[in-house]
Design goal:
elongated; two-stranded antiparallel ribbon; 260 residues; 57% helix
């Protein structure tokens, strides 16, 4: 028997309700699995990913589990009842493998409470707000303090005092992670990847401050009178200029290397 079902094939294909369901499922499965015993971290990760994909498969496809049946399950789709083996279910889950990786194109919840999100790709977002979000993001990597994600939500959803639910904070996390991946592909000279051997320890707050200052100085050419103008720039315009400067700097280094 052939049953044709359709599920989203990427993060960008998700509707808002599907995105909400995915974030809630990730939170719920992680909480459940944290209380279970696993053979290794790899086992925990594999079981967690499989559980998330299974919940999403049934929710998004319209399949319903009637009961475990032999080595598989008895399912219902619309008015049709049929059996599926564990191997067939595993094969169907492959279509949701994309859930394992963060989005490569920015994806976000459109609203949190009364807050409305800025553009997913941050077009029109002030450079100053981008720098603030990036500092908060880096701080979260160091401290894992959820309030830093909440502060990011205030900027990204243009609402002070916003109080996101846990799954909405997860949405902020995934949004910024996808923005960083996306910007790295658009501005490869400025966001030059660093090898694991050179990555070193996580940055502290002082190094983050110096990084922000360096970006502002690069754009103002040292003219402090232009700082407010630079901070008000669209982040895309600011990063385009920083990327061009990084490219020019790299070309100059190559020229001097050939002469020496």
């Amino acid at each position: 028997m052939n049953i044709d079902i359709t599920v989203p094939d990427s993060w960008s294909a998700l509707t808002q309700s599907q995105l909400v369901f995915l974030f809630k499922t990730i939170m719920n499965v992680q909480k459940i699995n944290e209380s279970e015993r696993y053979l290794s971290l790899e086992d925990y990760s594999a079981q967690t990913r499989a559980s998330i994909a299974t919940y999403c498969l049934f929710r998004w496809s319209g399949l319903k589990v009637i009961t475990p049946y032999g080595d598989g399950f008895l399912l219902k789709y619309k008015k049709t009842t049929f059996k599926i083996s564990a191997e067939q279910l595993a094969a169907a889950l492959v279509s949701l493998d994309w859930i394992k990786e963060p989005p490569s194109i920015p994806v976000r919840l459109e609203r949190i409470g009364k807050g409305r999100a800025v553009n997913a790709d941050l077009s029109g977002f002030p450079f100053e707000s981008y720098l603030a979000c990036e500092n908060l993001w880096q701080g979260y990597q160091i401290t894992h303090n959820d309030d830093l994600l909440r502060q990011m939500a205030e900027l990204l959803y243009q609402k002070e005092g916003i109080a996101p639910a846990e799954y909405e904070l997860l949405g902020v996390f995934y949004w910024w992670a996808s923005v960083k991946t996306y910007f790295s592909s658009l501005f490869p000279n400025f966001f030059r990847p660093v090898g694991s051997a050179d990555s070193g320890p996580a940055p502290d707050y002082d190094s983050l401050r110096r990084s922000v200052d360096a970006q502002i100085r690069a754009l103002t050419k040292g003219d402090v009178s232009k700082e407010s103008q630079i901070l008000a720039l669209d982040v895309w315009r600011a990063l385009t200029e920083l990327d061009a400067q990084a490219h020019e700097f790299e070309e100059l280094n190559k020229k001097f290397a050939k002469k020496s």
